[in-house]
Amino acid sequence: MGCAVAELKWDDMRVFLAVARAESLSGGARALRLDPATLGRRVSRLEDALGAVLFVKSPQGYALTSAGERLMSRAVEVETAIRGARDDASGTQEGLTGQIRIGAPDGCANYLLPQVCSAICAENPGLEVQIVALPRVFNLSKREADMAITVSPPSTGRLTSQHLTEYHLHLMASREYLRAHPITALDQVKDHPVIGYIPDLIFDAELDYVSEIGGPRAALASNSVSVQINWARSGAGLVIGHDFARPFAPELERVLPDQFSLKRSFYLVRHADDRNIPRLGRFAAELVARVPSEVARLEAR
């Protein structure tokens, strides 16, 4: 397959990448705005040209074969080189332009990134930012996002990570709840409804806050930080919440802050191949400069 790869056109690579990332013809067709049948024929022609089967087709979708995995690595390198060349040609030194997609846990996506990204966009009118808030790990190799913010550095894959900032969490409850149910000691927490994550949907051990208080299983649970915060705002019980979210939830007060607190970190994760794309590097530098100060500003309030 090595000789044939050198003769491939970028359009062939685009077709292959779209199907590989979507893991289906229909998803790849949507990404390329093509008819699925047309895309299927092009995949078949590509496999014939290479003399290799690139996908295992099943009712569940298209999975890469070992030959497909090898081509994926080459295709991503070509894609990165083309994106870098386009950045150079578009004169991005005069300002950030184009579309950048960043993935983040929904607490960060809801309470930090909107104002940070708005400030970056205000200084770069040609920039379009998409924030994807999902309570799971992002697959940067499949280009679900150009970069991601995570609560743990990655341990596998061709990824680079940079410590972004620390943040703090405390027990919180609404003033109304605390007036009706005063709490004066940490061992009383077990007698109150606790709001937290759905246990089997916790995608990173750093998010298992409830276990830190040795408390009961969460009586009210969601995979969304915003839902947890809103439950607490309504007086439903106690939540271990981000201090940077409190300015957006004025009904909440910290509970026993001198007895219980947590400290966690955010990391900025990028695909290793993207280091040669100046536009992404400059956007990442803006995040590194702005996110810590925004956390500090909100926590101080």
Automatic annotation (TrEMBL):
Protein keywords: DNA-binding, Transcription, Transcription regulation
UniProt GO MF annotations: DNA-binding transcription factor activity; sequence-specific DNA binding
Domain HTH lysR-type: residue ranges: 8-65
Keyword Transcription belongs to the record: yes
Domain of life (superkingdom): Bacteria
Family: Belongs to the LysR transcriptional regulatory family.
Lineage: Bacteria, Pseudomonadati, Pseudomonadota, Alphaproteobacteria, Rhodobacterales
Thylakoid found in the keyword field: no
A Gene Ontology biological process term: DNA-templated transcription
Gene3D superfamilies linked to this entry: 3.40.190.290, Winged helix-like DNA-binding domain superfamily/Winged helix DNA-binding domain
PANTHER family for the chain: HTH-TYPE TRANSCRIPTIONAL REGULATOR (PTHR30537), TRANSCRIPTIONAL REGULATORY PROTEIN (PTHR30537:SF3)
Classification via SUPFAM superfamilies: Periplasmic binding protein-like II (SSF53850), Winged helix' DNA-binding domain (SSF46785)
Protein name: LysR family transcriptional regulator
InterPro entries: LysR-type_TF_proteobact-type (IPR058163), LysR_HTH_N (IPR000847), LysR_subst-bd (IPR005119), WH-like_DNA-bd_sf (IPR036388), WH_DNA-bd_sf (IPR036390)
Species the sequence originates in: Litoreibacter ponti
